[in-house]
Amino acid sequence: MMLFVLALFCCLPCSKAAEVITPYSDYKFAVEGESVTLSCSYTGSVRALHWYRQYAGSSPKFLILESYGAVTKADPPIAGVSIQNRKDNSSVDLKISSAAVTDSALYYCALEPTVRGNPQHAVQKAV
């Protein structure tokens, strides 16, 4: 059994000051093989909720987004990753089923895309 850490950050929208997204916690410990849920709360009129993962020394990579009830996954999709927009309490969850040590990374929740063009390709580093 191996214990590892998932760090969570948020990206604030660039254009709409009334919309804010905030992680529930800065990091999460997980045991290999367990399901892990990372959560962010948001305010405002949200159109899309994005999740990205960044490994040390690499740029953030698009994982998944939910927009108006439709889910768009990375291409190719990341196995075991799902998203849930809990509108009743204005939060969005990223669920990693059967977590592995390779899932240890920084995770970003965002209201606006942090990439240019197709979210699965070109990456712009979030500030």
Automatic annotation (TrEMBL):
Domain annotation Ig-like: ranges: 23-127
Gene3D superfamilies: Immunoglobulins (2.60.40.10)
UniProt keyword terms in alphabetical order: Adaptive immunity, Immunity, Immunoglobulin domain, Receptor, Signal, T cell receptor
Domain of life: Eukaryota
First and last residue of the signal peptide: 1-17
UniProt entry tagged with the keyword Transmembrane: no
Keyword hit for Kinase: no
InterPro entries: Ig-like_dom, Ig-like_dom_sf, Ig-like_fold, Ig_sub, Ig_V-set, TCR_variable_region
Protein name, UniProt field: Ig-like domain-containing protein
